[in-house]
């Protein structure tokens, strides 16, 4: 690997760590960077999942304040995320991705709309008799995260933002930890069975660690509504890109 490619991977990792810890859109940056570095799509997807563990580690340190007192909640959601992450990883190994990827843009748009209209959606969700199980939504998002992962953070952030009344930075930090668990179990499966490019994963992961370490501090200082709108707009842009990309 030449020096230019190595620098691209580290810089891409920093950008992915920032966008992942702030918005759940790490793969918007990291996956294209791996493709630009010359990895084929399946290897890039698996390498990306492994590298994003750096983002989880950085977020856990940078968001210590928001994560205080959230241990039991994260543990409960993480158990669901483990099952979903394993299922998603096995799904990628056993099935072609074309059919599943067709629904990805629609899911991303749905997550973006939930973030944009969170108050109205939360009011509907909290009405008696209308509350779908949070565990099912988390499991399905974890399956998707283990399978492909682009904007899985946006989907999980949207679900958690509706299900709980709390400061947005807390929801964002919990999202990072739960999604990180789903990524971890998928990464273990890929490490044992898939074509992970370890040098690329290490460089990208180092950048992710740096970027995600600083991301929670920026979330803490950014007004909630503009941040939610910015995340939703970025997600809609990603959906449009995926719709128009062969």
Automatic annotation (TrEMBL):
Ranges that cross the membrane: 74-97, 103-121, 133-164, 184-214, 226-244
Source organism superkingdom: Bacteria
Membrane topology label: Multi-pass membrane protein
Keywords carried by this UniProt record: Cell membrane, Membrane, Transmembrane, Transmembrane helix, Transport
Plastid in keyword set: no
Keyword Metal-binding: no
Location within or outside the cell: Cell membrane
GO cellular component: plasma membrane
Main location: membrane
Family named by the database record: Belongs to the 4-toluene sulfonate uptake permease (TSUP) (TC 2.A.102) family.
PANTHER family: MEMBRANE TRANSPORTER PROTEIN YFCA-RELATED, TRANSMEMBRANE PROTEIN YFCA
Protein name: Probable membrane transporter protein
């Amino acid at each position: 690997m030449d020096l230019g490619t190595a620098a691209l991977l580290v810089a891409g990792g920093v950008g992915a760590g920032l966008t992942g810890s702030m918005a759940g859109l790490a793969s918007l940056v990291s996956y294209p960077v791996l493709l630009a570095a010359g990895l084929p799509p399946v290897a890039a997807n698996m390498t990306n999942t492994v590298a994003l563990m750096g983002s989880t580690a950085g977020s856990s340190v940078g968001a210590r304040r928001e994560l205080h007192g959230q241990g039991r909640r994260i543990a409960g959601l993480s158990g669901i995320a483990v099952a979903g992450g394993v299922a998603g990883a096995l799904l990628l190994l056993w099935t072609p991705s074309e059919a599943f990827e067709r629904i990805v843009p629609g899911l991303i748009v749905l997550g973006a709309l939930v973030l944009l209209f969170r108050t109205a959606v939360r009011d509907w969700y909290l009405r008696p008799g209308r509350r779908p199980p949070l565990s099912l939504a988390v499991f399905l998002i974890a399956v998707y995260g283990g399978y492909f992962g682009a904007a899985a953070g946006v989907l999980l952030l949207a679900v958690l933002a509706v299900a709980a009344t709390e400061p947005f930075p807390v929801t964002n930090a919990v999202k990072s930890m739960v999604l990180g668990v789903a990524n971890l179990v998928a990464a273990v499966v890929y490490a044992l069975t898939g074509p992970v490019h370890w040098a690329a994963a290490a460089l990208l992961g180092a950048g992710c660690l740096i970027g995600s370490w600083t991301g929670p501090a920026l979330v803490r200082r950014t007004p909630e509504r503009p941040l939610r709108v910015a995340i939703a707009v970025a997600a809609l842009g990603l959906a449009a890109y995926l719709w128009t990309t062969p």
